[in-house]
Specification:
Distance between the termini: 46 Å
CATH topology of the largest domain: Rossmann fold
Strand order of the largest sheet: 5-6-7-3-8-9
Structural class: alpha/beta
Largest sheet: 6 strands, mixed
Radius of gyration: 18 Å
Number of domains: 2
Mean pLDDT: 88
CATH class of the largest domain: Alpha Beta
Helix content: 25-40%
CATH architecture of the largest domain: 3-Layer(aba) Sandwich
């Protein structure tokens, strides 16, 4: 369904900062995610991507700064499931439940009609194993179930952490096409990954993070203007940061 356009960024991260003891996980991070565009959030493992997303979704309290969704903190959204769908942990579903039962439970908790279940199973290609117990699922099957859960509220924004993890090549290609179709319908997409090729193939905009700092942000075409690959952009940015 095509979304109505709205002024302002869908997601706004401003001066976000988080420490864990002596580890400065996120350092004054600022960037935005626009409606109708996929923003790739790229960095090596341990760069601060997941910590940033957890602060955005209210799972972790920042030491300072703000992380806003449609101008509000996640906990202040009147209907979070209808505003943002998130995939952060593919192991969250109980292994003894079937996929369908898991989705029914999530619908009940979020106040979403159960007739949405068949729609999200069809969208994600998870319908063939909807009545199997989750404990028997492969990583790719769990990933599709997690995405189906995120789509239950027909959200205006998607926040996905390493969404291609466990998917086979056909599944990865499907995920890219799915994200593109969502953006074309007006959905704001924030896709976190450590795989540069995945981001280069999927994103309109890119945010590069290294050691908790945002080292580059902007339209992907601008970032690639003087380089042949996103990998080279990232290497250039982190090398410059190391010598700054």
């Amino acid at each position: 369904m095509t979304r109505a356009s709205s002024a302002g960024a869908a997601i706004e991260i401003t001066d976000l900062d988080k420490r864990f003891g002596d580890v400065h996980a996120v350092r004054d991070a600022s960037f935005t995610v626009q409606r109708g565009r996929v923003t790739g959030f790229l960095g090596p493992n341990g760069a601060g991507k997941s910590t940033t997303l957890r602060m955005l979704l209210g799972l972790m309290q920042p030491d300072s700064g703000t992380a806003l969704i449609d101008g509000k903190r996640y906990r202040d959204l009147p209907s979070p499931a209808r505003m943002v769908g998130a995939v952060l942990d593919i192991a969250a579903a109980h292994p003894g439940m079937t996929a369908r039962a898991h989705l029914r439970t999530c619908c009940s908790l979020a106040g979403i009609a159960h007739d949405r279940i068949d729609a999200v199973l069809a969208i994600t290609g998870a319908g063939d194993y909807a009545d199997r117990r989750i404990g028997t699922f492969s990583t790719g099957m769990r990933q599709r179930l997690s995405l189906a859960t995120a789509l239950l509220g027909d959200p205006e924004m998607l926040v996905l952490d390493e969404p291609s993890n466990g998917l086979d090549p056909a599944g990865i290609a499907w995920m890219r096409g799915f994200m593109r179709s969502c953006a074309d319908a007006g959905v704001a997409g924030l896709l976190s990954s450590h795989i540069r090729g995945e981001v280069q193939s999927s994103a309109d905009d890119v945010v590069l993070i290294d050691s908790g700092r945002i080292v580059r942000a902007g339209a992907l075409t601008d970032r690639l203007a003087e380089n042949t690959s996103l990998e080279q952009v990232f290497l250039d940015a982190t090398t410059q940061g190391a010598h700054a």
